Amino acid sequence: MDATTGENSTVLKVTLLSTEDKKQNNPTVIQAAIQPLEEKQQHEHKLKSVASINGRLQYTPNTVGIHKTSISIDGRQLYDDRFVFHSRKQDEELMRKILVGIDGKPGEYRDVLLSTVEFEENRRNRKYCKISESGLLTNKYSPNSGELPPDSLKCFKGITARSPLSGLGCSFWVTRLDCKALPSAELNKVAAQVGLCLQEHCDDEIQIARNKHSWCVSVDSCKTHHSLCLKVYSSKRRVCDHPLTVFKPNTKLNITLGLLLDTDNSTLHVINVTTNSLVHSIPNIETSQPLMPVFGVYGPNMFQVQMSVPSSMDLSVDPTLLELLSGLVQT
Q1: What are 40-53's pLDDT values in tens digits?
Q2: What is the CATH number of domain 121-328?
Q3: CATH 2.60.40, domain 3-94, yes or no
């Protein structure tokens, strides 16, 4: 992950999956030689050696810029140009990524970027949702929303992220959702949706699930299962229906949903992070154009909805979730 100049930063964390060492809780020994790329280009061969026995490598950079790292884990030397990190100023945003080893292919890895996804206030549909002082997206209905910013959504009942996702590789982010069914709640109604949409089509429909240019997961009151369900949609077509909890007045649902976008394979994986389980994988999504994270909140007379997106630096990836992500990006 990135580091902050002048601060002791964790630049590498190693997790061994499905190994005897892991079962025996043996410490993971890391040794590394770190050199700022600028110094290397200036032929100042100043290598700094650091070591760790707890699987976390910490380092205090003195200069801003790219740092090249040579790493040894439990005595095995790893060679890859992606073992680099950026040292940034204290007011700059840091980036985190997971480097997943490919089974049966020593020395081959896939990157999973822990994306920083933030609500874009200027795009919020001010009539159908609000953002609280603590940054929560809520389904508050405001018929008199006043003067609207020129970029605000007019049709879609929700909000977009600040920037789209583009480029190759994998991106992962999570959304925390708190939903309560009010006494007036009915079956076959939608409470909230999270997904991706082609950037130029975010305002085409009221719901993400009705947009043919979108792929999403929806929390609905499902008549088939008489439950609050997760329903996955691909270009308006429902492809998965997964019951979560019995539907009745005052039912509460607290769930963290993860989206793993694999651009290389044109696949969107929907993950229940609360249970560390795969909900569904959507193949053949459109990745030739930038994809915008979108968040919809609905039914203020039937549901109380609060939604938040933790930053990449606040996102916790425990070994169980890491193993799930690793399995999904092996190809």
Answers
A1: 554 455 556 665 65
A2: 2.60.120.920
A3: yes
Q: What are the tokens at 219? A: 């929390």
What is the pLDDT averaged over residues 246-254? 94
Which of these, 164, 161, 165, lies nearest to 124 by C-alpha position? 161
Beta pairing class for 189-198 and 214-222: antiparallel
The whole-model pTM stands at 0.84
Q: pLDDT, tens digit, for every residue of 80-127?
A: 655 676 677 766 666 778 888 888 777 778 889 998 899 999 999 999
Long-range pairs of 82-88 with CB within 8 A, sequence gap ≥ 24: 82/109, 82/111, 84/37, 85/1, 85/2, 85/3, 85/11, 85/12, 86/2, 86/3, 87/2, 87/3, 87/4, 87/5, 87/36, 87/61, 87/63, 88/2, 88/3, 88/4, 88/5, 88/64
Is 281 within 8 Å of 268 (Cβ atoms)? yes
Domain ranges of the chain: 3-94, 121-328
**CA 71, CA 47: separation in Å to the nearest integer?**
12
- Summary mean pLDDT of the chain: 85
- Dihedral over Cα of 304, 158, 293, 309: its sign: negative
